[in-house]
Amino acid sequence: MASSPKADETGFQLKGSAPERYEEYSAPIMAPFVEAILDAVDLCPGHQVLDLASGTGFVARAAAAQVGPTGHVAAADVNEAMLKIAAARAPRMYPDIEFTLAPADRLPYADDTFDAVLCQQGVQFFPDLRVALGEASRVLRPGGRFAATAWAAWDRNPYFAAQHRALTEYGNREAETQFETAFSCPAERLTAVLTEAGFHEVVSRDVTFGITLPSLADSARGHLSAMPWGQAIEDAGGPDALTQAAETVTETLTDHTNPDGTATVPFTSTLVTAVR
Ligand SMILES: C[S@@+](CC[C@H](N)C(=O)[O-])C[C@H]1O[C@@H](n2cnc3c(N)ncnc32)[C@H](O)[C@@H]1O
Questions:
Q1: Is the CB of 26 inside a 6 Å radius of any atom of ligand 1?
Q2: Could you tell me if the CB of 78 is within 6 A of ligand 1?
Q3: What's the domain count of the chain?
């Protein structure tokens, strides 16, 4: 993997074993959005695809299955620990996914390389969105498609509203800043910056899925511990503070909890699409 700036230059840094938990506990939340973002770009066998801010690789793996043995998937992220999990989880099938440690604003790919650039829950963390989307445009071939998702405001997402409530009880300024960053990229900003970057057919819409999470008693803590704001709670108050914060999440979601302890919660994200 090529050398790159440190993960702590980004707004979403995970350390220790958090990337492993990210992969486990984020999977059910991300799954329907992976389908939505892939549907938005109409991948075909043979396509060249970039998963930008790939994290542990949910989108890259699904894209690889769609482009098949004649295609190619590249995955770039600035966090080496996330990429390690991604590489370990990538199925050994054609096409192999090419994982690269690289920041969104300095992509190590030639001009006009990709048929599609996908970015799931990454745009809100880029230090300079204009430069990053300019890079996405540069590496796309003319006519290539771009799609990104970013969470709608936390108060429109009951699960994240519950995490926010836990933060107000157990968090600190650092945790709040980390949290706010994840919900800081509204549709209007994305569409404006994509248009400025020269993209055409820039369209945004909200997508909402009702997602059933495994037993909240376990997953609320596991998921929180895999978020930067959960890590900040734990760093400041220790494991007990994290446990108490997770209990607040569980209690706040009582209305969404099923008799078997699972919870079915609506999640809403902005999906923006554009053509280079
Ligand atoms: C919420 S995670 C999303 C990961 C993945 N796309 C997914 O669907 O699960 C945000 C990711 O953005 C990455 N990231 C943040 N800033 C970045 C940057 N400037 N360049 C590349 N990746 C970045 C983080 O390292 C992290 O893996």
A1: yes
A2: yes
A3: 1
